[in-house]
């Protein structure tokens, strides 16, 4: 009857990745840089999210 923990964590992870993609899209980075960051976030979500937090466009 309860929500499966894995499903809930997956949903939270999806929300975080979507949030990061929106932040990249709204950033002041150039078009190619935005595209590369979004592709990295989509294809390598864990590594991409960590890299984006450390090295990604600010603002």
TrEMBL record:
Membrane topology listed for this record: Multi-pass membrane protein
Pfam families: PLDc_N
Major location (coarse): membrane
Keywords, ordered alphabetically: Cell membrane, Membrane, Transmembrane, Transmembrane helix
Residue span(s) of domain Cardiolipin synthase N-terminal: 15-57
Superkingdom of source: Bacteria
Transmembrane segments: 6-24, 36-55
Cell compartments where the protein resides: Cell membrane
Name of the protein this chain belongs to: Cardiolipin synthase N-terminal domain-containing protein
């Amino acid at each position: 009857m309860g929500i499966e923990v894995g499903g809930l964590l997956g949903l939270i992870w999806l929300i975080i990745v979507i949030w990061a993609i929106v932040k990249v899209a709204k950033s002041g980075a150039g078009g190619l840089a935005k595209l590369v960051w979004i592709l990295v976030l989509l294809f390598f979500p864990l590594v991409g999210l960590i890299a984006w937090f450390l090295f990604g466009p600010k603002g």
